[in-house]
Amino acid sequence: MSTFLEHQNWRYATKKFDTTKKIATEDLNILKEAIRLSSSSYGLQPYKVIIVENPELRAQLQPAAWGQSQIVEASHLIIFANETNIGDDAIDSFLKNISATRSTPLEDLSGYGDIMKSNISKLTSEAKNIWTAKQTYLALGNLLNAAAELRIDVTPMEGFLPAQVNEILGLDKLGLNACLMATLGYRHIEDATQHYKKVRKSTEELFITL
């Protein structure tokens, strides 16, 4: 079995974290870089990644996550917040980044910019928000894989009230919406979930080859 598959078999959605263990700065930086390098549609990365370390703030957020203990017990809490009304400004900023990174004249990128603006401007506000929210799941995938390699536990969470999280963190004022959470840390020895056999569809049931 490849090392990658060993990591995937090792990881699970941790229910109880060891509060005495904290993620080292070096490892956290690796996870942040894995998120930063994630793929996204057009490469736009239309979201912000909020790392909540402050224990008081996490205690405020816990009720908005239906009281789940991981919010306060994990070493770190990450909130993926999608841009709620992405427009031309975000695309122009992205093009400037391409130009600076690749030493490409900005005018040479105008055609690519026009394509993005044309396609995105056609979307309704609701469709834009759904689209930008979907991009965060690509970043989550990179986080899960990188963390498993470092033997750091991650629990993805959709079980929270975005409106409450937005209000607590002031995300509405920033044009952002909390759409996905992840708690990071190290499994507690008493977390029985770690001993459960992984349940997945069989290869025959899951895949269709045409």
TrEMBL record:
Belongs to the nitroreductase family. Residues 10-186 form the Nitroreductase domain. Gene3D superfamilies: NADH Oxidase. InterPro entries: NfsB-like, Nitroreductase, Nitroreductase-like. Its cofactor is FMN. Keywords: Flavoprotein, FMN, NADP, Oxidoreductase. It comes from Flavobacterium fructosi. This is NAD(P)H-dependent oxidoreductase.
